[in-house]
Amino acid sequence: MAKFRNVNFTMEIGNGYGQYVIKATYKGKEIVAHTTDSEAWDYLNDDSDKEKHLEALRHCYYKIVEEYNR
Questions:
Q1: d(CA 61, CA 56)
Q2: In sequence order, what are the beta bridge partners of 8?
Q3: Which residues partner with 7 through β-bridges?
Q4: CA distances from residue 10 to 14, 47 in whole angstroms, order as listed
Q5: Which of 10, 22, 24, 61 could form a disulfide with 33 if both were Cys (CB 3.0 to 4.6 A apart)?
Q6: What are the pLDDT digits (tens) for 32-68?
Q7: pTM of the full structure
Q8: Span 2-26, mean pLDDT?
Protein backbone atom coordinates (compact mmCIF):
# COMPACT_ATOMS: atom_id res chain seq x y z
CA MET A 1 0.00 0.00 0.00
CA ALA A 2 1.24 3.46 -0.88
CA LYS A 3 0.25 6.85 0.51
CA PHE A 4 0.36 10.30 -1.08
CA ARG A 5 -1.44 13.44 0.13
CA ASN A 6 -3.20 11.41 2.86
CA VAL A 7 -4.69 9.00 0.29
CA ASN A 8 -3.89 5.31 0.71
CA PHE A 9 -3.94 3.29 -2.50
CA THR A 10 -2.73 0.11 -4.13
CA MET A 11 -1.60 -0.61 -7.66
CA GLU A 12 -2.12 -4.05 -9.20
CA ILE A 13 -1.45 -5.69 -12.53
CA GLY A 14 -4.51 -5.50 -14.77
CA ASN A 15 -5.91 -7.92 -17.34
CA GLY A 16 -3.60 -7.15 -20.24
CA TYR A 17 -0.01 -6.49 -21.10
CA GLY A 18 1.04 -3.15 -19.61
CA GLN A 19 -2.31 -2.60 -17.88
CA TYR A 20 -2.38 -1.56 -14.23
CA VAL A 21 -5.24 -0.86 -11.82
CA ILE A 22 -5.06 1.72 -9.03
CA LYS A 23 -7.52 1.23 -6.15
CA ALA A 24 -8.23 3.79 -3.44
CA THR A 25 -10.84 5.32 -1.20
CA TYR A 26 -10.94 9.03 -1.98
CA LYS A 27 -13.31 11.38 -0.16
CA GLY A 28 -15.41 8.41 0.96
CA LYS A 29 -15.76 6.94 -2.53
CA GLU A 30 -14.17 3.70 -3.74
CA ILE A 31 -12.07 4.55 -6.80
CA VAL A 32 -10.70 2.19 -9.45
CA ALA A 33 -8.49 3.88 -12.04
CA HIS A 34 -6.60 2.35 -14.96
CA THR A 35 -3.16 3.29 -16.23
CA THR A 36 -0.54 2.01 -18.65
CA ASP A 37 2.37 3.80 -16.97
CA SER A 38 4.87 1.01 -16.32
CA GLU A 39 7.32 3.42 -14.67
CA ALA A 40 4.69 4.14 -12.02
CA TRP A 41 4.44 0.37 -11.44
CA ASP A 42 8.24 0.01 -11.29
CA TYR A 43 8.91 2.85 -8.85
CA LEU A 44 5.78 2.97 -6.70
CA ASN A 45 7.28 0.74 -4.00
CA ASP A 46 10.95 1.32 -4.89
CA ASP A 47 12.37 4.48 -3.35
CA SER A 48 15.96 3.89 -4.51
CA ASP A 49 15.42 6.75 -6.99
CA LYS A 50 13.56 9.33 -4.90
CA GLU A 51 12.54 11.50 -7.87
CA LYS A 52 11.01 8.63 -9.86
CA HIS A 53 9.34 7.28 -6.71
CA LEU A 54 7.71 10.68 -6.12
CA GLU A 55 6.63 10.85 -9.79
CA ALA A 56 5.00 7.41 -9.45
CA LEU A 57 3.11 8.48 -6.32
CA ARG A 58 2.02 11.70 -7.99
CA HIS A 59 0.89 9.90 -11.16
CA CYS A 60 -1.29 7.49 -9.18
CA TYR A 61 -2.77 10.28 -7.08
CA TYR A 62 -3.69 12.30 -10.19
CA LYS A 63 -5.33 9.23 -11.76
CA ILE A 64 -7.39 8.76 -8.58
CA VAL A 65 -8.51 12.41 -8.58
CA GLU A 66 -9.27 12.26 -12.33
CA GLU A 67 -11.47 9.19 -11.85
CA TYR A 68 -13.20 10.79 -8.84
CA ASN A 69 -14.09 13.87 -10.91
CA ARG A 70 -15.76 11.83 -13.69
A1: 9
A2: 3
A3: 4
A4: 12, 16
A5: 22
A6: 999 999 999 999 999 999 999 999 999 999 999 999 9
A7: 0.93
A8: 96
d(CA 34, CA 23) in angstroms, rounded, equals: 9
Asked if residues 40 and 11 have their Cβ atoms less than 8 Å apart, the reply is yes
Instruction: Quote the pLDDT of residue 52.
Output: 97
Q: Is 67 helix (H, G, I), strand (E, B) or coil?
A: helix
Nearest to 24 by CA among 58, 67, 53: 67
Rounded CA gap, 56 and 29, in Å? 22
Q: How do the domains of the chain map onto residue ranges?
A: 2-68
